[in-house]
UniProtKB/TrEMBL annotation:
Record's catalysed reaction(s): 5-(methylsulfanyl)-D-ribulose 1-phosphate = 5-methylsulfanyl-2,3-dioxopentyl phosphate + H2O; 5-methylsulfanyl-2,3-dioxopentyl phosphate + H2O = 1,2-dihydroxy-5-(methylsulfanyl)pent-1-en-3-one + phosphate
UniProt GO molecular function: acireductone synthase activity; magnesium ion binding; methylthioribulose 1-phosphate dehydratase activity; zinc ion binding
Cofactor(s) the protein requires to work: Mg(2+); Zn(2+)
Record: residues binding substrate 1: C109
Organism: Deinandra increscens subsp. villosa
Protein's recorded name: Probable bifunctional methylthioribulose-1-phosphate dehydratase/enolase-phosphatase E1
Amino acid sequence: MAANGAKMAVTSQAYLQGSQVAQTKSLISELCRLFYNLGWVSGTGGSITAKVHDDSVPKSDQLIIMSPSGVQKERMVEEDMYVLSSSGSILFSPSPKPYPHKPPKCSDCAPLFMKITDVIVIFQAYNMRNAGAVIHSHGMESCIVTMLDPLAKEFKITHMEMIKGIQGHGYYDELVVPIIENTAHERELTESLAVAIEAYPKTTAVLVRNHGIYVWGDSWISAKTQAECYHYLFEAAIKLHQLGLDWSTPNHGPIQSSKPHLGGQTTNTSQKRCIVLDIEGTTTPISFVTDVLFPYARKNVQRHLEETYDTDFTQDDIKLLRSQVEDDLQHGVVDAVPIPSNEAGKQAVIAALVANVEGMIKSDRKITSLKQLQGHIWRTGFEKSELKGVVFDDVPGSLEKWHASGIKVYIYSSGSRLAQRLLFGYTDYGDLRNYLCGYFDTTVGNKKETKSYVEISESLGVHRPSDILFVTDVYQEAVAAKAAGLDVLISVRPGNGSLPENHGFKTIKSFSEI
């Protein structure tokens, strides 16, 4: 009854003429003028839609304001907007204007906007965000970037600062945007758009070849911010292309002659693949982690907490540890001790933190709270040259070879992404991070669970999971990755644990065998 009452309230004449609806109409008029000046909605093209934000109305029931189709976007006012219900029915249509204005028409994008909203709602069950606004741009850069390689199904870019403005992405991540083919009428794009959204659960945009882009966010601010970042990245890729540089690789070096320009992809996908590497026992001796990194963290945890206690990152670490310890106490975890409140004083809190961290390290627990703190402790050690990253002798040359061949290499470790970057950034062979395209840690899931590798596969945007080669020394990780469809090799290095008989996996003793 409450939900039906909310729907009836927002469709009432009083609500339609209320301040929330008027403010959203005014906002879209303002955005249309802004986007016109950016070249995104010129020639009457493009469109903007946003939900009417109202805390008293469930987001699923909020009204939708949409700019009309085929009108001068820079001259629109509040009265020109359409008002749609949450199900897509038209509640208010603008009145026709005298010649030479064309009669108003609800945008051809309407089915697409509704499809985006519907699909995102479905994916909320998979930790996706509900769309609160959708922007459709005809910006030239969003059109040209899809034309550089007519066969490419994705746009990819990495190691660009503006990637950080895209939801769920950081500087070191590879941004993947699906590309769908254009049709004569935008409404005919609905199904292909839905397929792309489902196939790329991390994406907040879909490119339409020779046409433009759809961008969405949980609010108009999120959608606008991301649209600006996407257009910047497309323009950067086009300019790098003109310079003969490959924007899809970390160092943006010269485009390899064997690769067409867009995203460093080849049309023969069997020649190129992604490689995901474990660290312990694969790139790095287990002894370095157990005999060097862990003891350093254990020895320096108290000093680190005392020196950085009031910093934002340490307070964040403490918050995560408190939550983990509370859970441990409820489940009777050995060595877990209560952490007093801040009122007990800094030293009392630190003493309890140190006791818990030592217990976690002793048990070699693969938990985010510990890994994050360890990463911050190790950062100090690497920056002070008290630590130096260790990799097997065959690793640097292999990374360089794969990089030169256009193969994208990623790391997946139980250590935090910060710790991973530190290890490869401060080695005896120099900084190896230029050969790596991204890092995964336990935030994507436990390394012994199949769903973690499904998430990685979806994040990398490969056509098939088997396009990814995963290399690890742990049998259970190999089994989980294989179940997700990845190709798997087991690394057999000095100091590694024994494998089950008849384990059924190919093994290597050196990356030179790959």
